[in-house]
Design goal:
With 318 residues, the protein is α/β, with parallel strands linked by helices. It is built from eleven helices and 14 strands. The longest helix has 32 residues. The chain is globular. Bound molecules: flavin mononucleotide.
Length: 318
């Protein structure tokens, strides 16, 4: 199945289910619409003379990947979409040289997922019961996850349309983030940075990477798309921490914009759900393969030889 078919079928299948609500945005729906609006402000500076093939291979935080296109943090509603859904996602991502990322709830079979050999990131919410955060971080490390993280942006929970979804959370302080740093011996990621101030505090706390994200429109209404704050984030992050971005990325043409604005990796949330619903493990493989092929084609046409060499010069902004 090509990307258009995957998306069309996946959206149709999911929208007919009760968990279809999980794909909506908070309150007015502004954030979801704005994500696409901002993405579409950028077009490409073509450079075809002397164009040559590009590679999408990259190494980020010691992990070799075949593509900078990875999964964003999520668990729900994967088990409801397909039987053994999390394993299907893991195997599909592994096959394509991508990375898997679990969210809430932390899957019971995390060890089994990690044992597939897929590079695996896992994040925990800032639960009011702080003990639970540290327990989950320990569980991640016992399971052998590649990167462990905390969702710093859900201190006031998540909300979809008018309905609160997760509410047992409270904002983390800088001092608590430093404690979390001490509890994680490997790579530590803070997800949900949308300003230079939070990027700077994340670096001070010792984050190896940050995810510039508006949490897929599940926290505050009227949050910007990460691209709108990428400059201030990159100003403090460049050379100090790795930046990953997500929010509204659907095609290779979107991914290259994320790389151009400074991200090392680009995450896909809803597309993973659509692909799984449309065609199971094959759907996941098609999703990553197709987006990566689009990315590689565009890289060649803008004169970028690998993901790390994609920079802002390739973009023309409205
Ligand atoms: C159904 C659903 C569940 C999600 N669950 C989590 C989660 O548990 N933890 C988290 O950090 N982000 C979660 N997210 C947000 C994603 O990690 C990601 O930031 C967002 O979906 C990216 O935008 P996109 O869906 O437009 O690709 C979820 C998103 C969706 C759509």
């Amino acid at each position: 199945m090509n990307l258009s078919e995957l998306y069309e079928k996946g959206e149709r299948v999911i929208s007919e289910q009760s968990y279809g609500l999980l794909l909506e945005g908070v309150e007015t729906g502004f954030v979801l619409a704005n994500n696409r609006r901002v993405m579409e402000r950028y077009t490409f500076r073509q450079s075809v003379i002397d164009a040559s093939e590009a590679t999408t291979k990259c190494q980020v935080l010691g992990v070799e990947l075949g593509t900078p296109v990875i999964m964003s943090a999520l668990t729900m509603p994967i088990p409801a979409i397909a039987e053994n859904g999390l394993m299907k996602v893991a195997l599909g991502l592994k096959e394509t040289g991508s990375l898997m990322w679990t969210g809430t709830p932390v899957p019971g079979n995390l060890k089994e997922i990690a044992a597939t050999g897929v590079p695996l990131a896992s994040t925990v919410k800032p639960f009011k019961d702080r003990k639970k955060i540290f327990e989950e971080l320990e569980r991640f490390q016992d399971a052998g996850v590649t990167w462990a993280g905390v969702e710093i942006d859900v201190g006031y929970g998540t909300k979809i349309k008018d309905r609160p979804i997760v509410s047992d959370c409270a904002p983390l302080s800088l001092a608590e983030l430093k404690e979390i740093r001490k509890a994680v011996s490997g790579t530590l990621i803070f997800k949900g940075v949308l300003s230079g101030i939070d990027a700077s505090k994340s670096i001070e706390a010792g984050a190896d990477a940050i995810v510039a994200s508006n949490h897929g429109a599940h926290t505050l209404d009227y949050l910007p798309h990460p691209f709108q704050v990428m400059e201030e984030i990159m100003e403090v992050a460049r050379g100090n921490t790795v930046v990953i971005v997500d929010g509204g990325f659907r095609r290779g043409s979107d991914v290259i914009k994320g790389l151009a604005l400074g991200a090392s990796l680009v995450g896909l949330g809803r597309p993973v759900l659509y692909a799984l619903a449309a065609d199971g493990q094959n759907g996941i493989q098609s999703l990553i393969t197709e987006i990566t092929a689009e990315l590689s084609r565009i890289m060649a046409l803008v004169g970028a030889k690998d993901p790390a060499s994609v920079n802002q010069d390739i973009l023309i902004r409205d």
